[in-house]
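Q: I'm writing up a methods section and want to include an example of the input and output format. Could you take the sequence below and give the corresponding predicted structure tokens, formatted cleanly so I can copy it straight into the document?
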Amino acid sequence: MARSTQPGDAAREPAAPPPASMSYEAAMEEAQRLTDQLDRGEIGLEQSLAAFQRATELLKRCRTILEVAELQVKRLTETGELEGWAEVSGSGSNAAEGPREP
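A: Here is the clean output for your methods example:
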């Protein structure tokens, strides 16, 4: 007997990358796609809850990236330097850690 699959079935879709490893653009694009799915009512309740949770995590990542960028711009306008700041887009980096110690 063939197994029926749904759009969000893990057997059909590759595992999504953790939000912390995603660029601003990739996280925002996926969050928009999930929001569009929710708006159209294309998925069931359980999948909707999972999509909502994922979109929330993605938007939190975007907000963190923007906050770090804002701090970098502020520092640049005050000091003219950005040295010592952690990369935001790198895999496994913590965007909220701020400047690194020398």
